[in-house]
Design a protein that fits this description.
By secondary structure, the chain is an alpha+beta fold. It is about 40% helix and about 25% strand. Strands 6, 7, 8, 9 and 10 form a 5-stranded antiparallel sheet that branches.
């Protein structure tokens, strides 16, 4: 009989042991899987970001020997780098195969129809792909090598051809018929202009406009000419693609002309642009034509662009690059990016990016002088002519604009008055330069979290302490679930309400909001003080733990009073317009969707998280500690401050850090409740852009694999690091607090 009671006990122990081990292994496996998931996220982000950290590479693909010794004055390549074209000094254009079995084969030679002897040659901005021949009769002929792609029999065939931007019309630049010795030109969006140096040393600017004759229907060219009075020698001519600026180099001076109106060309600036103890040897316009690149015979290349000065917009030297120590440096710009190449007469090739002042690649690519250079439209290949030979180089330089300095330091962008932290990834302009500083959006993340925590932490912790320590159990069973269920409210709803209801409300009743921030705490303290002065028989009418009910009518009354007096206060103190007062008198910009709106809305979302964890921490303090303190004569407040809060401090700190993590990663509220302006300003009346909101806004628009796309992943990685650092600090501090107060 004695063994019967032991049998169920043995089975129960085995069952309990099985459940304990199952729970142990299950929890361990779950924790390991969470760690693996975090590591996978971490390494996937690194995998996507890694290409922007790679260095540029230049690798030779093929050499093609030219069978004749013609003098080529221009060189280019089609978009797929399959066919190269070479323009010689007589007007002929030769096409060569660069890929496939016929690599090096001369495909055809096309002749430009010229009505005169060639005396000069010029090329347009790279993205236009146009060339011009200056003739001995004062005329200019424009030509553009092009390629027709067809698919006969499902086979891709590229047919080279020549097109003429002006339907073959030759432009009469000089009415006196003098030979054109130098020229620069642009034909872009129905605008055609030429600046030329004639054989008799006159500099002529000519603008051509096509007009249709209303009687005959024929196209007639209306020409406006101006002679630019420069008496010194002319070394180089440049023109912006939109024809609004013309640059003339004379020795070490750059003459800059405003050529918007061909009949009233005005000189706007003269640059003494050479470096000390050096002379200018070459100039070019960077992609976008906003920057002037100047090469000196000491190997230094400088960048100049217009900025606002006391005398108006003037070209100033912004930065310089140390290239190869060579006295003969040529500069070549890319089609669209602010990248430029340098070539020398000793066969050196350099690759640089201006905005980040990055030296991307430098090397010797030939044993002889580089006679001509061209980069492909996609900037993935380059051609050089050296010693009767074409060399093709593959270029791996997908993300030149991404450097540590461009991401985290102030950068001086074209047209900006000074270096700045700027995020502006897109624009409607083709010559736009993307700006990828992560500083303003990281700053916005911290700013949004700070204002949210300023609003949420005092309310959440005060509510948690009161609910866990002072509130009656009956009222606590109602209040705690009610606050916790607030966390289930979708943040998109909070953002919607903040943007469409709260933001206009704050703008219209700003004095009321300020009054609420001041009067609510004062009214609560005043109510508590008055409550203590009431007779005991009245105070005892309300059971212990139900005192918070008294504050409900007080809060409603203060709220109603604040909004009632708002209009009168605004009229009396701010002349009826507080927003105008802030702007005109205090110099503060007021955005309708600002940090105050974000702080309230996001604080409302964070409060349940902090409240729930902190309330559990305070409520879980062993009762014998508080009872012992009270039994020794301490008051409730002394017990709360010196016993309960100290014991619960690890949990309270964890609650605050959990709330901070939630605020840092919040997306929809900051997306809908701010203007998403990536500015760096602590003003509570201005908005911001956060890392999470920036990713949500721009990821659908980014091209997969582009610099923009990978930098958005880098922003996600930075956000990941933010939360990891916060959580690590939180865990470290929590463990320290737990060890310190665990012995109580």
């Amino acid at each position: 009989m004695s063994s019967n009671p032991q049998q169920p006990s043995f089975k129960t122990d085995r069952s309990r042991l099985f459940k304990d081990r199952f729970a142990q292994y299950g929890i361990t496996a779950g924790g390991v899987m969470v760690l693996i998931a975090l590591l996978m996220i971490f390494f996937y982000l690194l995998y996507v970001v890694q290409p922007i950290l790679e260095s540029a590479k230049v690798e030779k693909r093929v050499d093609i020997t030219l069978q004749n010794s013609e003098q080529y004055v221009g060189i280019g390549v089609e978009e797929q780098t399959e066919i190269a074209y070479l323009l010689n000094s007589t007007g002929a254009v030769d096409f060569f195969q660069l890929k496939g079995a016929d690599t090096g084969k001369k495909l055809k030679s096309l002749v430009t129809d010229l009505n005169g002897q060639v005396t000069s040659f010029a090329k347009s901005a790279p993205f236009l792909g146009q060339y011009a021949y200056g003739l001995d009769n004062g005329q200019v002929q424009l030509v553009r090598p092009s390629f027709l792609v067809t698919f006969p029999g499902n086979q891709r065939v590229i047919t080279p051809r020549l097109s003429y931007p002006l339907d073959g019309q030759q432009l009469l630049v000089d009415e006196q018929g003098a030979a054109i010795e130098r020229l620069a030109f642009s034909h872009y969006e129905e605008k055609t202009a030429v600046v030329a140096l004639t054989a008799d040393k006159r500099v002529i600017f000519a603008s051509f406009t096509a007009e249709e004759n209303m009687f005959s229907g024929e196209v007639e060219w209306v020409v406006e000419r101006s002679e630019l009075g420069i008496d010194s020698r002319i070394d180089e001519l440049l023109m912006s693609p939109d024809t609004t600026r013309t640059f003339i180099r004379s020795a070490n001076q750059i003459y800059i002309f405003d050529t918007r109106d061909a009949s009233e060309v005005t000189q706007i600036q003269i640059l003494a642009a050479n470096e000390e103890n050096a002379n200018l040897v070459g100039t070019t316009l960077l992609a976008g034509a906003n920057s002037l690149m100047l090469a000196n015979d000491n190997g230094e290349v400088s960048q100049w662009f217009e900025i606002n000065t006391d005398d108006g917009r003037k070209f100033n030297k912004i930065r310089a690059f140390e290239t190869s120590k060579n006295s003969n440096v040529d500069i070549h710009s890319e089609f669209y990016r602010r990248t430029f190449f340098t070539t020398t007469d000793t066969g050196d090739l350099g690759l640089y990016y201006t905005t980040s002042q990055a030296h991307l690649w430098q090397g010797k690519v030939s044993d002889s002088a580089i006679e001509a250079f061209a980069v492909s439209p996609r900037s993935d290949a380059a051609l050089i002519i050296t010693d009767n030979k074409i060399s093709v180089f593959d270029i791996h330089n997908e993300h030149p604009e991404v450097t540590w300095s461009a991401l985290w330091q102030e950068v001086w962008y074209e047209g900006y008055p000074e270096p700045a932290y700027t995020w502006q990834s897109t624009s409607a302009s083709d010559d736009f330069e993307s700006k990828f500083s992560l500083v303003p959006i990281s700053f916005g993340t911290i700013k949004a979290a700070m204002y949210a925590m300023l609003f949420a932490v005092p309310i959440a912790l005060s509510a948690a302490i009161y609910t866990a320590y002072f509130m009656s159990s009956e009222l606590r069973r109602v209040v705690k679930p009610t606050v916790e269920i607030m966390e289930a409210l979708p943040t998109v709803i909070l953002g919607f309400l903040a943007g469409l209801w709260l933001a206009p409300l704050i703008e219209t009743h700003l004095p009321a909001i300020v009054a609420l921030l001041i009067l609510l705490p004062l009214s609560m303290i005043g109510t508590a003080f008055l409550w203590t002065k009431l007779p005991e028989r009245i105070r005892h009418l309300l059971p212990d733990g139900w005192h918070s009910i008294v504050l409900i009518p007080v809060v409603l009354l203060v709220g109603w009073l604040s909004f009632t007096i708002s209009g009168g206060v605004e009229e009396f103190m701010f002349d009826g317009n507080v927003r105008q007062y802030l702007t005109n008198e205090l110099g503060m910009t007021f955005d309708q969707r600002n940090s105050l709106v974000v702080g309230i809305a996001m604080g409302f979302a964070v409060i349940p998280t902090i409240f729930s964890i902190a309330e559990d921490a305070v409520f879980s303090v062993p009762k014998h500690l508080s009872n012992g303190s009270l039994a020794l004569g301490a008051t409730q407040w002394q017990t709360l401050v010196r016993v309960v809060l100290l014991t619960a401090s690890p949990g309270i700190f964890s609650a605050v850090m959990m709330g901070l993590g939630r605020a840092v990663g919040e997306t929809m509220i900051v997306l809908m409740a701010t203007g998403n302006t990536p500015i760096m300003d602590w003003s509570i009346f201005q908005g911001m852009r956060t890392l999470a909101a920036n990713i949500a806004v721009e990821m659908p628009e980014s091209e997969v694999g582009s610099s923009h796309y990978r930098i958005l992943f880098l922003a996600a990685f930075v956000l990941f690091i933010f939360t990891f650092v916060f959580n690590t600090i939180a865990e470290f501090v929590r463990q320290q607090l737990r060890e310190k107060y665990s012995s109580m």
